[in-house]
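Escalated from tier 1: pantoate holo job.
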Amino acid sequence: MKIHATVESMRAARAGMGARVALVPTMGNLHDGHIALMRAARECADSVVASIFVNRLQFGPAEDFDSYPRTLENDRARLEAAGVEHLFAPDETAMYPQPQRYHVDPAPTQAAILEGASRPGHLRGVATVVLKLLNIVQPDVALFGKKDYQQLMVLRNMVEQFALPVEIVAGETIRAADGLALSSRNGYLSADERAEAPRLARQLNALVKAVRAGECDFSRLEAAATAELIAHGWLPDYFTVRRRIDLQIPQGCDSELVVLAAARLGRTRLIDNMEI
Ligand code: PAF
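Tier 2 regenerated the structure:
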């Protein structure tokens, strides 16, 4: 696997790649969810590029930018084993040689709700870095996990609205045997918190089953799930049924739906979702 630390090196390598190039952007600390995306990329492209960059722009001032796990050696071995040919791993100076003064500002209806309400500016930071990564690598297809459902929706809209010549492909959330969605932040959980953490997925699953069985009083279901989490020591930010297409509040049971949740367990904020 070739490692590119600069934009110039990445661009030069792009010229010699196969007909269809896939990019899987990550912030590193790779888990099986990322590796599933690399494999999916292999299946839909001739050359696969992964990127690892912990993007300061998407972290709030009180968030975990400094302590976010950086595990490049281990990540590199996992990417090699998954058959990734190119890794773009710039440092901050290579990615942001000057302070970033231009940003992608997603519509507040999409980026100030849910994650955006709890993490102001987060999706602006994500969209800005992803636009930059797409410009640098110029992939034909870019893959993102459904675990970050709102991020995926915002990025799809960015690509559509700016007519970017790239296809966005979504990968399913990969879960531990007990249901917990894989995430780099799971590593922050203590042993007791890790044992408690699958409750979030169980509550999502229970709501999905209830709606599929015909229950359409979403507020009642959301309140019950929220109460259950609070009773077990969680601090929920949201637990809400939304339309898949734009994450707005549905009028009834007839649109395609997803239930999304974010909640703090101790000092760790977990997010998860399930399509209904
Ligand atoms: O999902 C992530 O890991 C990040 O938000 C992304 C898309 C790599 C942008 O920094």
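The mean pLDDT is 97.
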